[in-house]
């Protein structure tokens, strides 16, 4: 079993989170190789890939395009996981906890209703569907399934862009549309992306979403 982990950290707001996350992965995660997209020249214990910072919401909206830019390398691994850089692994995670032959997704415990409701978007979800809603901060899967998901979401984002529309919660909206059509094989609890905004009981957090000093995500 080989695992590739992809992290994106550009700009002064997010780059400082990269080293702590990588360190926590080394301590608590199954054996893996980290691929870090960044505009920083600092040393990181990862395969560093140059990526210039862009204005919000491009860094998050285009994350699946970014991942596909190293498709040839990622195809040499059995599994791929993407993690937001402002996460921190705080408890031991075994391969069987997170790896599956299909997609592994994490239920969102904080704001589980941010579907795209405008029919003009390829991320559209009918109003009668209110759950499940999944985190965009961590997503993984077997390599074939994960890259297929990246292709589909990237294609839909491109179609939206041509039509002058950006989904309400960017890549996460598109992810949830994809998972509605292609349900994940493994569903993880909010313990795998815990923050103070989580509205469900979590006994032992596995991964925490760090509370940033300024929670306005549009600043950077």
Please trace the helix and strand order, writing H or E for each element.
EHHEEHHHEEHEEHHEE
Query: What is the helical fraction, as a range of percent?
Result: 25-40%
Radius of gyration: 16 Å
Number of helices: 8
Specify the structural class: alpha/beta
CATH homologous superfamily label: Spore Coat Polysaccharide Biosynthesis Protein SpsA, Chain A
Uncertain stretches of 5 or more adjacent residues = none
Oligomeric state: single chain
Taking strands numbered 1, 2, ... along the chain, how are they ordered across the largest sheet?
A: 3-2-1-4-7-6-8
Shape: globular
Q: Count the E strands.
A: 9
Q: What value does the average pLDDT take?
A: 91
